[in-house]
Amino acid sequence: ETGVTQTPRHLVMGMTNKKSLKCEQHLGHNAMYWYKQSAKKPLELMFVYNFKEQTENNSVPSRFSPECPNSSHLFLHLHTLQPEDSALYLCASSQDRPLGANVLTFGAGSRLTVL
Amino acid sequence: AQTVTQSQPEMSVQEAETVTLSCTYDTSESDYYLFWYKQPPSRQMILVIRQEAYKQQNATENRFSVNFQKAAKSFSLKISDSQLGDAAMYFCAYRPLSGTYKYIFGTGTRLKVLA
Hints:
The complex is a heterodimer.
Chain A: E1 4-7, E2 10-13, E3 18-25, E4 31-37, E5 44-50, E6 53-57, E7 64-70, E8 73-79, E9 87-94, E10 105-106, E11 110-114
Parallel strand pairs in A: 2-11
Antiparallel strand pairs in A: 1-3, 3-8, 4-5, 4-9, 5-6, 7-8, 9-10, 9-11
Chain B: E1 3-5, E2 10-14, E3 19-21, E4 24-26, E5 32-39, E6 46-52, E7 60-61, E8 64-69, E9 74-79, E10 88-96, E11 104-105, E12 109-114
């Protein structure tokens, strides 16, 4: 496989469930991102990892817990979510170079519905 | 604060015609990158075109071109010879040269292509 792969594509969970979103990139990139996409809002950056180290955490509630075991894999662990957390969660990767364009390559997203 | 504004929530174009999508941004930086991303119904965001602010020449990629007006902080996307496959959400994005992960996205413009 090439590019950025996200699983599952769709997820429905109750507020008391625990689930995880998975992202895998096959591009050899050194940075990986989680974004939240809600209707009629700009993409919201949640977390950034560079060489497995978390470099950004945009004041995300603790019910979202990221994990980056290596440069190719990124997880978003979900627990005790709220209905307003329902959204499309996008994973992206980039090759981070100083002063470079660092173009983002996105996955197809995981559509999350919290009941 | 840096912001990106897309004032057209939705646009329509006849197949084979030309359409222009608007984007304005606000920044005090002098060096930065601008991007247009396309998100088709498959949900996977794809880079359409990018522009480095220090380059005066407008970027072009086949049927896609931009009109970059740095003083006016405007970055519009022109799609020529529109095709049915161009139907998608289009997002304008800004990233400062020094802020590796600090992408700022607009709210998007939905483009419909009429046969």
